[in-house]
Amino acid sequence: MTLKTVAERVGVSSMTVSNAFSRPDQLSAALREKILAVAAELGYAGPDPAARTLARGATGTVGILLSPSLRYAFTDEFAAVFLIAITEELARSGLALTLLPPEGTGTVVPTRDVAMDGAIVYSCRLDADGLEQLHRRQLPLVHVDQPYDADAISVNVDDAAGARAAAQHLADVGHRHVGLLVVGHDDDPARAERSTQAERIRGWHDALDPAGVRTTIVAASAYDEDDGADAVRALLAAPDRPTALLCFSDARAAAAIRVAQEAGLSVPDDLSVVGFDDSPLARHTDPPLTTVRQDASAKGRLAAAALVEAIARRRTGATPEVSHVVLPTELVVRQSTAKPPAAKPPAGR
Fold first, then answer.
1. Nearest to 224, CA basis, from 175, 276, 183, 169
2. Were both Cys, which of 59, 179, 263, 312 would link to 242 (CB 3.0–4.6 Å)?
3. Element (H, E) at 14
4. What pLDDT does 188 receive?
């Protein structure tokens, strides 16, 4: 069954049938509906995607280069909301999303070999092989949660301001020793692997250092929950444990709450815990999590829209306009934070 067969049955040109599948805006709704109905009746699924790609010079697909493990896209609730927003925004332009691991296997390197019109780079190491391959291909790119690059289109959140507000909240209620739970095993955690973490560490210290708050930093594997739990256990088992934890993410904060409770500590009576993201998880921890809200949906929509525009400009021969968007954050205080034990009045008073 071919496109020409459908065209002959309907009594239109082959180009008109092709437009019904690929450029619906070129036809009236009634004509397109008739063509698609006849195609379905004859068992014609539409133009071959590979042939259509060659004819149009476009794949209809964009990639997203993720952090080291693709598992992150499916297990982290914040990442899931972010990816859903990207997918929905791309669908408005008829584009599909492909997940790209940063490293290849064998002779297949997705960022080198997968056909795509552009890509979003999301929270990846600057030395990731996949990122280098995308730059070599000179595809339109949008950076999200990446270090600032004056030449790159970017969408980020104000991580430093959000972290500063969270740390100031703990200082204001009286905490004088705060643990900082970060991700990655850098020899110097202050030289964080990702710009988001570097900015959050800076924001925490901006509030805690002037207040004279002592900090203990502990690093856990970015994607190994057991490793993160072990790091928190070690911190809480220390003779002089902190009275509060500032965590890189809600996922890390939720894990810290579980570890503290398993150790017989009460949150927040013995230990205050603060997350970052305000993912759906934050409202379902016990107790509900104090955290920093960032708008995952807005970040995803803006990143996708910026990439669609960059791809469109590239097709017309125009140079993509470089833009840098920084979204605001907001501290959300819930029940996982309180005054430190030493600052609370004795029971019965």
1. 183
2. 179
3. helix 14-22
4. 47
